[in-house]
Design goal:
alpha/beta; elongated
């Protein structure tokens, strides 16, 4: 039977179809590889999100461990240069030792039921790690034994801070997670760090 134009056209098209299909599949693979290539910003965001997830998991683990040990939120895992004092005498002894070693002292006045104090505690621990040359002393105003320290220092609101060096109060200020107040806290810590470097130079 002789081939007509229509039948020839049909054969021709059926012969080309597999090639086109392969071309389409190849193009699809290229587009897929391009579309799934993550942007550097996306990679950074995922890494930051993962770091935050791990940090939250670590904090939760520490909180559960502290609770199991009967420790309060301010008594858990603390940096080596951060101490929650138990008595006025301990505060005095630790401060004098720091002065003798040429270290600055940051006293953090807080109360157990103070939400701002609790929220700031995590940031203070990080700042303590960043400033090993400063001794961080936490004074709990909810402890009746330490109430006289609050009264003598004239502290009426928390969280409140005193920066001291050689027994002299260099600055008094309140602080929180507010960016401006955090900036002030960092500024005071840097000032104490520079003062120690100047003494040791």
């Amino acid at each position: 039977m002789p081939k007509t134009a229509a039948s020839t056209r049909g054969v021709k098209n059926s012969w080309r179809l597999p090639i086109r299909a392969r071309q389409n599949r190849a193009a699809t693979r290229v587009l897929a590889s391009v579309s799934y290539c993550p942007h550097p910003d996306a990679i950074k965001r995922r890494q930051e999100a993962e770091a935050m997830r791990q940090e939250r998991a670590r904090e939760q683990s520490e909180a559960e461990m502290s609770e199991a040990m009967g420790l309060k939120w301010w008594e858990g895992s603390l940096p080596g240069n951060m101490i929650a004092v138990a008595t006025p005498r301990e505060l005095d002894i630790l401060s004098r030792q720091a002065y003798a070693a040429g270290r600055g002292v940051l006293i953090n006045y807080f109360q157990e039921d103070c939400y701002a104090c609790r929220c700031l505690h995590k940031k203070l621990k990080q700042l303590a790690l960043d400033h090993p040359e400063v001794l961080f002393l936490k004074v709990n105003g909810s402890n009746e034994v330490l109430r006289p320290v609050f009264e003598e220092a004239g502290v009426t609101k928390v969280p409140f801070f005193h920066c001291l060096r050689d027994g002299y109060v260099l600055s008094r200020f309140s602080a929180s997670l507010n960016p401006e107040k955090l900036s002030l806290l960092r500024k005071e810590l840097l000032a104490m760090a520079r003062a120690r470097k100047a003494v040791n130079a």
